[in-house]
Model the fold of this input.
Amino acid sequence: MYIRNGFENIMDKKKYKDLRENYLHSERRFLEGPRSRKRELLFLIKVLREFVRGFRKLHFIGPCVTVFGSARFKEDHPFYIKAMEVGKALSHLGFTVLTGGGPGIMEAANRGAFEAGGRSVGCNIVLPHEQKENPYVQKSVGFRYFFVRKTLLVKYSYAFVCMPGGMGTMDEMFEALTLIQTGKIKHFPVVLFGKEYWEKLIELMDKMVDVGTISEPDLKLLLVTDSVEEMVKHIRKNAIEEFGLKKGKRIKPLKFLGELINFKKPLW
Done:
């Protein structure tokens, strides 16, 4: 019996590992090229379910500011400390702080909002190394598909703050800038935080203007700063005042649809 149970435990672990691999790499298999019509239809249904789950969880969180940044900074790093200040300041403006829900800069921004008594929300992604949501998220939704997650991080936001980060941060930042530049979303303010960190990127973008791959007005989409106060003024002017945001106005949830709000503070 002991041997049999041990064998069954091994099989259970193997089955779990296989199921996890299948779950994690579903998006990769989709991007490999055409598959059978049945597989493509099943994938479409999974994507639809993920969007619906995201809509239901995020529909009532109020106007957000999304904070992008690296997951690798520890809590004693200056960028982590500054991201906490950013989250706190955005919370005091009345925004829900929305992040990717993971560690590093994301945790710091959520923590700043949480400790300031504001609203802190995370959109986490399921990755092979099992990125876990940080403990300062009040409401969270997990995603298996990057493109669904990125869409919802943009959908509910009136501004974007890009703290120092790597490829993922660059991807998210340039997607927001492209959507604004092409008119797919409104001219929401985008803040790059950390002048020295982003210095070479700004030089590259200036060169793009010189050679004509982007237009000079495109650079006006960005505010590059080291000042939380300057960020606050910029977002207040170009988001709150520009789009007429007012506290007290919100969509009311319907109980018979199971729509609940977990925040104790009133929403916008």
User: Anything to note?
Assistant: Residues 51-246 form a domain with the Rossmann fold fold (CATH 3.40.50.450).
